[in-house]
Amino acid sequence: MERYREKGFKLTPQRIAIMKFLEGNKNHPSAEDIYLYVRKTFPTMSFATVYNNLETLREKGHISSLSIDPERRRYDPDTSSHHHLICLKCKMVVDVHADFKVNVPEEQNTAFEVLGSHIEFYGTCPECK
Ligand code: ZN
Ligand code: MN
Description:
Number of strands: 5
Structural class: alpha+beta
Bound molecules: zinc ion, manganese (II) ion
CATH topology of the largest domain: Arc Repressor Mutant, subunit A
Mean pLDDT: 91
Shape: globular
Low-confidence stretches: none
CATH class of the largest domain: Mainly Alpha
CATH architecture of the largest domain: Orthogonal Bundle
């Protein structure tokens, strides 16, 4: 929690509950998943509150959001550079930790300083297969 104690970043009990749920979470949960969990402790908390908290955490760089699932934005507490694989049937998202050497072709990147890349793999998980 120490690294979150920065200026203007309030550690409300609701926000702490969200952060605790996300800490070390490898399931890449959606805002709905997080809402259903946190609601058990804070029954009066609205979905909008959960969503706004997630967006604040993302803006501050504490979590990242993934667009790999076209149906719902997914959140990842692991902000290190890594890639993802999604099962198109059950929507399970797993990490792919590998250092791919992918470059934008020389003739296309003239004005750009490329800061990173993210590869999305999709397929069928062993369970669904
Ligand atoms: Zn699956
Ligand atoms: Mn991840």
